Structures are given as C-alpha cells and as structure tokens.
Amino acid sequence: MVKIGNLDLGEFPLLLAPMEDVSDPPFRAVCKENGADLMYTEFISSEGLIRDAVKSVQKLDIFEYERPIGIQIFGNEIESMREAASIVEEAGPDMLDINYGCPVNKVACKGAGAGILLDIDKMVRMTAEIVKSVNIPVTVKTRLGWSQDTIRIVEVAERLQDVGIQAISIHARTRQQMYKGEADWSYLNLVKDNPRLHIPVFGNGDIDTPERAKEYREKYNVDGMMIGRASIGYPWIFNEIKHYFETGEKLAGPDLAERIRVTKKHLDFSVEWKGEKQGILEMRRHYTNYFRGMPNFKPFRTQMVTAESYQEVAALLEEVGAVYADYQF
C-alpha cells in the first residue's frame, strides 16, 4: 500500500495533476467521480495568499468528497512560502504540495516553479522551512531538471526526502522541453533504485492510454502515476486505466449520453461555484475535449464557446444529444 503520512492511497494510486485554469473544484468533481485517487488544486501564488488576493484565496476552496486532496503553492521567496504554507494548513487539506515544476516563463524565469531547479540548495532550504511550518504532510511536484545537462533528480529527491517531504511527483521532462518531445521515465527508475529513498515516487508525463499506463507501471517501478492533460475533457481515463490494470481488457469508452451528463455536471458546478458569467467563460476550454472525434461538431462548438447564458449552453447540449443520437464513439 502507498502511504503519504497516515493517508492510505491504495496499491497503485492515480493522481490528478495540478493544472492551472483546469484543476478547479468543478473539474476535480468529475475526475473524483471517475476514479482519481488523489487530487491537487491549481497552483496558488504564495504572494497572492499573503496579500489576500481574491483569485488566490478562492483556489483554497476544497470539499469533503474530494479527500484526500492537496493544495499546491508556488513562489520564490522562502519567507513568503512559509507564510503561505500556514494559510494553506488553515484551509484543511490533507497535504501541502510545493510546485517546483511549472515551466512557463512568468513563473520559472522569476525563480519559482521549475526555475528553482537552477538553485538546488535554495530548493532544499525552502522545502525544509515549509515542512517545519506545518503539521500536515508536504509533497513536491518537480521536473527532471532545468535542462538535459543539469539533471540531478536522484540527488534532488533524496535531499528533499531528508528535509521531510513525504512523496515526490516527477514530470519526466526538463524545463527546457516544456511539454514537447517524449517524457524520459528512465530517470524515475534511477530515483527508485536509490537505496536511501523510501518515500513514494509518482511518475508524470505522456500517460494518455491504459496501455501506456500499464507498460510504464511495469517498466519503471514507480509507486503511482499522475495524469494531467489526458484527463482534460476525458475524466474517464482514471477508471479506464484501473480496469485495464485489473483485467487486461479495455473498458468501453463513454457514450454520448455519458459525455453530455458529465459535461452538464461540470457546467452546473462551474456556474454554482464561480457565478454564471465566469462559470460559463471558464467552461469554454473543455467542450472540444468532451466531444472530441465527433464529425461536423465545429458549429456546435462555436455556439457553445460564444453562448453567454446557462440556458443557452444547456439547450445546446440537449440539441447535441438529439442530433447525434445514433452516433457511436
């Protein structure tokens, strides 16, 4: 069994990756319903939390049915990260995750996210201070390194463990790769082969089918997997992977009625949580993925991403159900 602190996550947990502008409560709700074992919030700016910025504070919202759930923070100032960690603990998550992996310029080039991979000593000092400042488990999400010639992930995992983190998730790309090229999971084997390492190691990157999940599970010796982009518009991937692990057979994918049901649930929660205007706006990025592969869907998509009321979107979903009633995925 894989454990983080006192939390039992099962034999081989599947984690929902923290994704900015994606991993909000409405999206997490449909992923939890479809088999995610552990989820994290979108990353939250430590400076935003300290200054009580509305957008940052709203990201602290978690719900009982989501447990176990972690809240993720990022920043480049050790004191700010300590203060933010204390604020996070008051929100009542099961764990706190530190983002040392975000590759985007506005984060990494300021020394936060993956930017801290250029200063491993600071990374270790910051982590130690955060661990000391809270009473909940601290985990880390990171990348292999800043670039191919600066990969020190075996050392990083061990040093972070030694200052108190209780699990590490590794996106098997460098910061320079961003999301391009193939993730190199062979480095995760090296991390797991370190006899001094005893915390769980979760692999992330390119897990987009049950077949690949099974192949990587058997090949790379990780304790679980974190799934990100493949779950956007397709939360069913968690249960499909679990079914494939158990039976070696592919679970039938969701039919149209199921896709509409989950899209509607996602929409309802989005509107309830953020208000109609913002909830509808933020749902627009999901429609293409929920209905990917359907022929001649572009006119419906165009209407969905320009609709301005809940009633309009709900009516369009009903129309999709009627027009494509005989369509088989």
Question: CATH fold name of the largest domain, please?
Answer: TIM Barrel
- Beta-strand share of residues: 5-15%
- The CATH superfamily of the largest domain is Aldolase class I
Strand order of the largest sheet: 3-4-5-6-7-8-9-10
Name of the CATH architecture of the largest domain: Alpha-Beta Barrel
Low-confidence stretches: none
- Which structural class fits the helix and strand makeup? alpha/beta
H/I helix tally: 15
Globally, the shape reads: globular
Number of domains: 2
Number of strands: 10
N to C succession of SSEs: EEEHEHHEHEHHEHEHEHEHHHHHH
Distance between the termini: 36 Å
Largest sheet: 8 strands, parallel, barrel
- Arithmetic mean of pLDDT: 95
CATH class of the largest domain: Alpha Beta
- Radius of gyration, in angstroms, nearest whole number: 20 Å
* Oligomeric state of shown chains: single chain
Helix content: 40-55%
Task: Describe what you observe in this structure.
It is a single chain. This protein folds into two domains: 245 residues, Aldolase class I (TIM Barrel, Alpha-Beta Barrel); 68 residues, Non-ribosomal Peptide Synthetase Peptidyl Carrier Protein, Chain A, CATH 1.10.1200.80. It is an alpha/beta fold. The longest helix has 19 residues. The strands form two sheets. Strands 3-4-5-6-7-8-9-10 form an eight-stranded parallel beta barrel, surrounded by five helices. The chain has a two-stranded antiparallel ribbon with strand order 1-2. The radius of gyration is 20 Å and the shape is globular. The chain contains 15 helices and ten strands. Helix 1 packs antiparallel against helix 11. It starts with a strand and ends in a 6-residue tail after the last helix. 44% of the residues lie in helices and 14% in strands.
